[in-house]
Amino acid sequence: MQTRRDILRSLTIAALGLAALPALAQAPATPAAGEGDPAVATVRRMTDALEAALKAGTVRERSEILSGPMQQTFDLPAMLRLGVGTRWKDIPAEKQQALIAAFGPYLAATYATRLSAAAGSTFAIDPKSEARGPGRIVHVTVTDGSGDTSPVDYVLNAENRITDVFLQGTVSEAGTLRTGFSEPLQEGGADGLLAHLKKSTETMLAAPAPKAKP
Q1: What is the pLDDT of residue 36?
Q2: What is the pLDDT of residues 50-85, one digit of tens each?
Q3: Phi, psi dihedral angles at 125 (to 5 degrees)
Q4: What is the model's pLDDT at position 146?
Q5: What range does the record give for the signal peptide (predicted)?
Q6: Is the model's pLDDT at 7 over the cut of 50?
Q7: Which tens digit of pLDDT belongs to each residue from 156-188?
Q8: Domain presence at residue 182
Q9: What's the domain range around 158?
Q10: How far apart, in whole angstroms, are the C-alpha atoms of residue 28 and residue 73?
Q11: Beta bridge partners of 137
Q12: Is residue 164 a part of any domain in this protein?
């Protein structure tokens, strides 16, 4: 059985693209109405999607809710490069694009799967971001259905797109991806990672809806 801390961890540790479309990858997020800090507006768009997805009944439904906002708020190609690490530069361009195309559905399905255990969670966003190099950090407090809280930090680049997510200031989304991608890359290179992304996505989306409690 998952602990409350595991549930909060699930909201931030996922695996991430759908950014094969260059226009989406390059377009910076714009502030929502009344949102003065564009970095905060980006994170709010994503947490709004997470809260909406929590109300859906299946992984597939949650993934469909999350995929669009992820395209808009995450720098998915950059996160994929971080997840692959130094091997990325050795992958031919056409295979890089194939990986990017498979990465988005994988990330959306992973977040959707982990949200299955997070019913009732809410997100409180600090209204002001902090500078971090050329980018920003936005602090969020996640509260689960039992009232337990956990800090989550979203790291954004100069274009106000999310490039990493940290739980408790130490657990990195990019680092989690790197760990998960290591074995497929070692065993099959770019083709092995592509197969891993596609198979994992199909498996997660095929998960049945949880049975209603009596």
Answers
A1: 87
A2: 999 999 989 999 999 999 999 999 999 999 999 999
A3: -105, 130
A4: 87
A5: 1-25
A6: no
A7: 999 999 999 998 878 899 999 999 999 999 999
A8: no
A9: 4-175
A10: 8
A11: 130, 155
A12: yes
The answer to whether the beta carbons of residues 190 and 197 sit under 8 Å apart is: no
Q: Is residue 127 part of a domain?
A: yes
* Beta bridge pairs of residue 131: 136
Chain-centroid distance, C-alpha 207: 19
Residues 131-136, mean pLDDT to the nearest whole number: 94
Q: What is the 3-state secondary structure (H, E, C) of the chain?
A: CCCHHHHHHHCCCCCCCCCCCHHHHHCCCCCCCCCCCHHHHHHHHHHHHHHHHCCCCCHHHHHHHHHHHHHHHECHHHHHHHHHHHHHHHCCHHHHHHHHHHHHHHHHHHHHHHHHHCCCCEEEECCCCEEECCEEEEEEEEECCCCCEEEEEEEECCCCCEEEEEECCCEEHHHHHHHHHHHHHHHHHHHHHHHHHHHHHHHHHCCCCCCCCC
Domain count, the chain: 1
